[in-house]
Design brief:
Layout: E1 2-4, E2 12-13, E3 17-22, E4 25-32, E5 38-42, E6 48-56, E7 58-63, E8 68-73, E9 76-81, E10 89-93, E11 97-105, H1 106-113, E12 132-137, H2 140-150, H3 159-174, H4 192-207, H5 215-222, H6 226-237, H7 241-259, H8 264-270, H9 276-287, H10 291-297
Helix pairs in contact: 2-3, 4-5, 4-6, 8-9
Length: about 300
């Protein structure tokens, strides 16, 4: 929710890394690896949808001349659209925080999702002129795409093509909906207690990723039935517990390989694989290449 801001403290001003995907479609990125907050801003007209993804740390979206702010915390996103007034981007990015913003004109967006207007709320005819904002959770599959954008290190000549593919992938993952979703499941999220239990389940499997509990053990530990654990986890994180954990482990493995402090066997062991062959097979399934070839590709 929005909050009143105290008097502005002096915050260092910086600028986005900007990549134009095509006309009416661009990606902004900013990594604040400093120990002080940084401010990044961009004028943008009211015809644009704004998607802001906090990949790491925390960020504030500041508006109304600095009087209010919306928090965007780590692993969370914020979607903003206000066709009635300008909504310039003014982000206060906390120390050691990364933000990726995707901007797309409503006209281009309509072209992408014209068949889905009944399911994407702000595309319906009734809402055409209404402002819209929605915060959400970054799923593991979205986190991988966002990290690929932030850590781009391929040839500059293919950057625009690569970013275009990733931008479309990110939007499709953002608006992905489960085919088996039904109305009966929807009330689950209204119960904040259950949501807290599901988030605890996520923290448990992450903290014990090398030796995770079984689903039954997990449901017993958080005090939620197996059925509600499965349904709730899918609703909040867009994936089953073990698919989520697999994606998470592979992302951890990728970062460990990039850091270069551990060999392939050690990385595999750290993320829970007793044999290097199982780890290599899993990594290849996720990224289409072996850990060794991945490290070599980093140059």
């Amino acid at each position: 929710m929005s909050q009143e801001l105290s008097a502005n403290k002096s915050i260092a001003k910086s600028s986005f890394e900007e990549t134009i995907i095509e006309d009416g479609f661009l990606i902004l990125m900013f990594k604040n690896d400093e120990h002080v907050p940084q401010s990044v801003a961009k004028e943008i007209d009211s015809s644009f949808l704004q998607f802001h993804f906090c990949v790491k740390g925390s960020t504030k979206f500041v508006f109304n001349q600095g009087r209010y702010a919306l928090d965007i915390n780590e692993e969370n996103s914020l979607l903003l659209y206000n066709p009635q007034r300008e909504l310039p981007i003014n982000l206060q990015v906390d120390p050691n925080s990364w933000i990726v913003s995707v901007l797309i004109s409503i006209k281009k967006f309509h072209g992408l999702f014209s068949q889905e207007a009944d399911y994407i709320t702000f595309l319906s005819e009734d809402n055409r002129d209404k402002k819209y904002y929605k915060d959400g959770v970054i799923s593991p599959s979205m986190a991988i795409v966002l990290n690929q954008l932030i850590n781009y290190n391929l040839n500059q000549s293919i950057k625009s093509l690569y970013f275009k593919g990733k931008a479309y992938e990110l939007l499709s993952l953002y608006f992905n909906r489960s085919e088996d979703a039904n109305v009966e499941q929807c009330p689950f999220l209204v119960d904040e207690t259950n949501v807290i239990k599901i988030r605890k389940a996520k923290e448990i499997v992450i903290s014990r990723m090398a030796e995770p509990p079984s689903l039954q053990e997990l449901s017993d530990e958080i005090g939620l039935s197996l059925k509600k654990l499965k349904e709730g986890f899918k609703q909040i994180y867009g994936d089953s517990v073990f698919s989520f954990l697999f994606d998470y482990k592979m992302e951890v493995a990728r970062k460990l390989l990039e850091a270069g402090n551990d060999n392939v066997n050690e990385v595999g062991h750290k993320v829970g694989y007793s044999t290097s062959s199982h780890f290599i097979s899993a990594f290849k399934k996720k990224y289409g290449t072996t850990p060794k070839k991945y490290v070599m590709s980093l140059g």
